[in-house]
Amino acid sequence: MKPFAVIRKNLGYLGFAFSLFVLGLLIGVIYFESLHELAKQFLQHIEKIADKAKNGGSMNLSWLLLKNNVIASLVLLIGGFFLSIFTIYGLVMNGLVVGYALVLMGKTAQVPIWALVAFGILPHGLLEIPAFLLSGAMGIKLGYMWLRPLPGRSRWRSVLYTIRESLYVLPVILALLLTAAVIEGFVTPILLKWYVQS
């Protein structure tokens, strides 16, 4: 079974994962003023990564981002073993933090928000977010198999089948995250610096 065949087969779960992410993003934008305390802990985690990377250069930053994102993706995937509760929560919260951060940057940044999105988020986000959504989609399916096994298969066989599918997709997820981390560590700072200086 090829990875992209598995992805095509599970587009419904991918769409549901995307819907949860967008829901979180909208909550982060619409209820920005009410979310300062909730979002603070997530933003502090991001700040810690940035602080650790200060003295290590782009390579260290890329490694820290990759490690953090791989862990986050695995949590979304493994959350399926717990009826997808942690997976659903993780997708909504990831969207919420992105939405909150966009509004925060729009209020505090020295450069236009479109430039921050175009040069600071999109280059790596176009790879990073699909990786999270793929992990979330397989996590959601895994949880669903506990409740509604595949036709003609037992619950355990359905779960094992979904685990096998997830293992086929995992290299795609890791490749996306690796590329995104390299872009965020090496390319994004150059793009932002170029825009500010131009």
From TrEMBL:
* InterPro entries xref list: SpoIIM-like
| Entry keywords, A to Z | Membrane, Transmembrane, Transmembrane helix
Q: Which domain of life is it from?
A: Bacteria
State the signal peptide span: none
TM spans (from-to): 12-32, 70-92, 99-123, 129-147, 167-192
Q: What is the protein name stated in its UniProt record?
A: Stage II sporulation protein M
Lineage of the native species?
A: Bacteria, Bacillati, Bacillota, Bacilli, Bacillales
